[in-house]
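Inputs:
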Amino acid sequence: MNLLEFQAKGLFARHGIAVPKGATWPDLPDSVESYVVKAQVPAGGRGKSGGIHFAETAAEARTAAEALEGSTIGDHTVDSVYVEQRLDIAHELYLAVVIDRDRRCRTIVASPDGGVDVESVPQERILKVPVDPLLGIRSFVIDRVVRFLAPPPEAKKALAATVRALHDMAISEDAELAEINPLAVTAAGTAVAADAKVVLDGRARHRHPEWGDLSAPAEGTEFERAVAAAGGVAAEMDPDGDVVAVVSGAGLMMASLDALVDMGARMRCVVDMAGTPFGEAPGLVGVFQAVATLKPRVTFINAYFHTALADNVARSMANAYAKAPLGGRIVLRLVGRNAEEGRALLTPLGFEAHGDLEAALKAVIAAQRKSG
Amino acid sequence: MAILVDDSSRAIVQGITGTVGRNVAGLMVEGVTTVVGGVTPGRGGQEVHGLPVFNSCHEAVAETGADCSFMAVPAPFAMEACLEAVDAGIKTITVYTEEIPIADGITMAAYARARGSVVLGTNAAGCVSVDMTNISDLNDRYLMRGPVGVVAKSGAITYEVAESLRKSGLGVSTVVCLGGDPVLATYHRDILERFEADAETELVVMLGEIGGRSELAASKFVATMKTPVVSLILGRAAVPGKRMGHAGALLGEDDENWESKTEALRGAGAVIAGNILEIGEKARQTMEKR
C-alpha cells in the first residue's frame, strides 16, 4: 500500500521524525513565513512535473492550491493538495529503510546527495547498511550511517535520532519502504523530513486496526483489480492481444505464458489463481466474470493439481461458466486426480479439453488463428 | 539418500485441525511419510486421521521425536508457530501459509538460520524425497524416484517438471519448492549445495523466475558444481512493473530479469532449456553425456 505524502508524514510525526508544519488544503498551516504547495499523487518527480509550487503569502498559496486541485500530474488526477511550511534548508540528504530480499533483512540506505532521484546518485555516494533482524538497530549501525552522511556537528544528534526513528517506524508500522528524500538539515541544525514515501505491507493489516482510516490509492487496471477482488493475481499485457491465460500457480502461469509467446500467441493478459486449488475458491466466478468483460478470442485455462480433486475443480468451473459465460474459444488443460472425469464434464460445454500441456498450447495457437 | 528429509524423518503437521492441514495429513497417512502427529494449540489430546494432536511443537517433539513439519497455520499466527517449531528443534519446516507479512518472514528466516533449521517459504509448496518423506503439497502418486534433484520457487511448476522428466524416463530424488514471497528463508544456492553433496542426485533441474537475486547468487555456485544442472528461468515474457502472480515475481533491478539470470547460469555451465516442455529431454541428454 503506497501512501500519499501527507499520510506518510502523519506516520513520521507519530514516530518522532520531524516534519514541516503542514495542513491539507483548504486548510493552511498556522504561523509560517512562506509556503510549499504540493499535489498529493503517488508518483516521484513531482517538482519537475509541476506538482510543487512555492508561495510567499497565504493568498499565493491559496491560488496555487486551487490551480493544482483537480489537475493532472503524470497519470494521476490531483485529489488532494498539501500545504506546508517552507524550510530554510542547508543540506539535503537521502535516508531510507528498505527490505533487502537477498540478505533477508531491512537495510538502511543513506546518501549525502539528497533531493535528487537516488537512482542517479553514484554508487560510492550511497551507503547500504543491513540491520540484523535478531539484533535490531544498534548504535554502531546508526553511527556508521551518520558518519557517512557527514552532517555539520550540530546536526549529528538530530540525524542519529532520525535514523533510529525511521527504522523503528518501518518495523512497528510494517513498512516495506520508508524513504525521506530530501531529509533536510536546516540552518538551525535540525533534521526535517521535507518529503516522505511509505509503502505499507498490506499483508500485515490484521495487526493494524488503525489502518482502517488509511486508504491506499487503488493499484492496477480495472481488470486487475477485479481479479484481485476474486482472490487471483492478474497482469494485463497487450490491449490488442487475443489470448487470456488463467493458470493454477504463478510458476506454471509464467511457464505457460513464455511458451505461448514463443509459439506466436498474442497475449491479452494472464491470471494466477494464486496456488489455491481454484475449484474450491468462490473467486472462480469473479475471475470468469472479469475475463468475460475482456471478450478474449481465446481463453486458456491451465490447471494442474496434486492435492485438489480435478473433477471437483471441473464442477466449479462449470458452475462459474454458467454464471459468467466466457465468449470466444476455450482451451482447457486439466490434470490431476480424476482429471479424465473432469474433462468429460467440461467438453459438452464447449471447452476443448486436454491433459497434455504441449497439445493444449498448440490448441491455443490454432484457436487464435481460427478466430483471427 | 536425497536431501532435507529422508527415510528416517518423522513428520508433523502444524495446523492439523484446519482444512489444509487435515487434507495434507490425510495424504501423508495414505502415502509413504512417517507422520507422527500434529499441532494445534488448545486442541491437544484430539485426533485427526488417527494421529495425535499436541498443544505445542515442544510436546510433539518430546512425545514423537518429530524432526520435520508441514505448517498450514493461518497467517496471523504463522510466525509464532514457525519460531516455536525451530525452538523445539525441528530441522525442516515447510511454511505453506500465504499472505504472511514480510517482516514475519524475515524474523522466521533469521531465527531458523541461526538455529540451523531449514525453513522453506514463506508461501512454499515444501519438499518431498520421493518414496521416503513428503512435507509438501505434491502427491506421492505422481512422483517416481530417480536421480534428478529439482528446485524451484513455485509448487505447481514442479508437477510439470516431474512429468516432463518421467516422459523422458527419469525419476526424482528430492523436489524442493522455495516459495513465492519476496523474502525467502532458503534460496536456490542453499539447496544446490545439498544436492551437490548428495550421492543419489546425479543431475539438478533448477527453475528460477524474474525478481530477486537468488538465481544470480546460485549461478556462482553452479560454476563450481560437479553435478550437472539443467535450468530454466520463468518470466521471459513478463511485463515490467507487473507482479507475475508471486509477490516476489516483479522485475526489480536491472539484472533481476530473464536475460541476466539465464546468461549467468549459462556462463556457469548450466544447460539452458528453452521452455518447460524441454526439461525432460535436456535432462536425459545431459545424463547420457556424463
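Chain A touches chain B through 51 residues (CB under 8 Å). Flag for discussion at group meeting.
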